[in-house]
Amino acid sequence: MKLVGYYGRIDMNKIVKVATASVVGLISAAVLAGYTGVGSPKVNAAVITQSELHTGSSINSYIANNKIQPVGITKELHTFQMFKYNTSGNKPVGVVFHYTDNASNYSARNEANYEINGGWKNAFVHTFIDAGTILNIHDTNYGCWGSGPQGNKRFVQFELVTARSRNDFAHSISNAAWYVAYLAHEYGWNLTLASQHNGSGTLWTHYDVTHYLGGTDHTDPIAYLNSWGYNTSQFLDLAKAYFDYGGFYDTITSNVAKTYNATISENNRNDGLYATGPYYTSDQTRVPATVSAKTLNGQSVKVLRQAVTKRATWVQIQTSSGAVWWMDKRGITVDYDKVLSSRTVSYSAYLDQSYRNDGLYKDGPYMTGPSTFEFAAKHASQYDKQPVSVLAEETTSRGTWVKIRLSNGDTWWMDKAGIKTYDSISGEKSLGNVTVRVTQDKRNDGLYASGPYHTSAQTILPAAKTLKKYNGQTATAIREEKTPLATWVQIKLEDGSTWWFDERGITFFDSILSKNDNTSTVIVRQDNRNDGLYASGPYMTNNSTFVPAWKTAKKYNGQRATVLGEETTKRATWVHIKFADGSTWWMDKRGVAPFSFDKVLSTSNVSYNAQIIQNSRNDGLYHDGPYMTGETTYATASKTAKPYNGQAATVLKEETTVKATWVQVKLQNGSTWWMDKRGILAFDPISNRVNVNYKVLINQSSRTDGLYATGPYYTSLATKLAAVKTAKQFNGQEATVTVEATTPRATWVLVKFANGSSWWMDKRGVTPQQ
Q1: Average pLDDT of 546-564?
Q2: Could you tell me the domains of the chain?
Q3: 38: helix, coil or strand?
Q4: HEC profile for 684-720?
Q5: pTM of the entire structure?
Q6: CA distance 688 to 577
Q7: N or C, which end of the chain is more exposed by having fewer CB within 10 Å?
Q8: Tell me, what's the pLDDT at 666?
Q9: Is the predicted pLDDT of residue 228 greater than 50, yes or no?
């Protein structure tokens, strides 16, 4: 036996079988291969006759004349590798006929056991067939590895085992042909030879796969068949005979829901009742019924479904007790529907068969008489969307029916649900020729010339022209009309054409509700905003302001600007603003704040020394006044006190605002600036300084006063630190006081000592001489 897996050809005859045979002798094949159960034959195969064959063949004639009966299928599915077919619906599209090419083995069982127990997880076929067995070992709903990569993913595959005699060959061919017919029934194939249809048939040999699909080089079973005077055309003829007469159940060609009342009429009949389906369509219905419809004769039943097979038309009925059965339709009499109400009407409508196929009945509503019972000979779908005149309405237990007149004059009865009336128009009003924008980014609205959609025969069909091509253009809105479906507007486009379409396909620009030309100074506040800037007006008031702004006020955050005017829409109040760079824009008023400088709450002229302290600060320097008290002091300072850290300065003035106390300082370079007082170290001011001239005695018995050359202690950078020289060395000496000065700490005297040096010291360290 030769199998072709996906990765190449495997010749199993060349593999030693001794070990496998000994193992099989000890352990059953089922245990070794993961066997999932043995099933009985699926169907009872039938015997064919010579009249059912159409191609000359001595073998086929032998089968017919000797009434050889196929054995049916034995299912013994094992756990081979499972993979889906690469076909539509993942179902097989044909069958490949193999020959085992093992002249010394005549048993499908032995061939299958070798494949099962040899570990051939990736090299196997679905079924083995000999004179007495059709042994199916792999689920045919999944592929197998026997005919190369192209065949494996498309076809069911079986192996024909060597026959030891002409009689065995006839039996094995009978089984194989019947099996092919069974597969054709199972998967809905029309049996044709691949070799006769240029590689597109459903019955393939391994040779056909090699020739048309490739991936393998085998030529079986051609030579083997020829050795018995047999060929594939004769095999196809036999398979077709089994397809038609091989004992397969009747095919249900139609099975539709039906609902009507009927009476069992078995006076001259004795129809069987079947629970699961029409007679001879399954295992359960192939034997004569054990329950007869005669037992229900004269009873009223409800018909649920109607099915057709080659034998008859069948109905599924439900009895008054709730029991459900299938029976021959000829065993019932229809109870026609009564007309419950009838009236003459006159209105216009049109046929709507989009998801329907309503029958047209000449003599009255469906199921009200013999001529309206069966399927309609004509259907409304062929007149879909045509206008009709409705002439009458009648009601039955099934629904309401209408009598219609078509445009060609013919009259018919049909289900009222298959027609639609035109939409009524309400709420008409003029739109005053306002300008709108066509908005079709996510829409494709139809255009209607004569009125809103679905209000006349001319507007019921899908529009031939749509608004999409005008997307983004402006248009003039003329009128508005409402229907149950939507609100519709009539517009005039830029090309001059006038159309009706869904109002949701346009955008009305915002109206200006109020405006003023008031001017003011503001500050742009965009810390938590990102307002768009619009050149030609407030947002959404014209076509150029419809889209989100490409420029925003974020870049002007913190800047002062001038408001030139205001306009209000339903969305917001908008300001026309002029920025410092000279550009003018419209923006949301909420993105600006009124501008007001800080008021100076107090001011005083001072004169004291200080030291610039910026170790952990970086105070701005302002030329014209404290920060935020004028136009030139509003922005962040371009210069800071940091470079002057540690330097001495003279404080000339102090002013207080809500933010801080500010000092005007004169730096050593002569420049004058305003800065935060917290950024300086203020020395003691001298509140009183007078020139004097009197003698004193240095009194340092219990003191050690420091001596300062340039002024009293802590009145300047030079006197900030503790003195390195003290008056102790001059204790008891006489000296002259030439100046007195007062600070918050003490009264200080400038003393001239006998050695000619002059020093400032605490007045408490001297005693005036009488």
Answers
A1: 93
A2: 2-245 (3.40.80.10), 254-335 (2.30.30.170), 341-420 (2.30.30.170), 426-508 (2.30.30.170), 514-594 (2.30.30.170), 602-682 (2.30.30.170), 688-768 (2.30.30.170)
A3: strand
A4: CCCCEEEEEEEEEEECCCCCCCECECCCCCCCCHHHC
A5: 0.39
A6: 56
A7: C
A8: 98
A9: yes
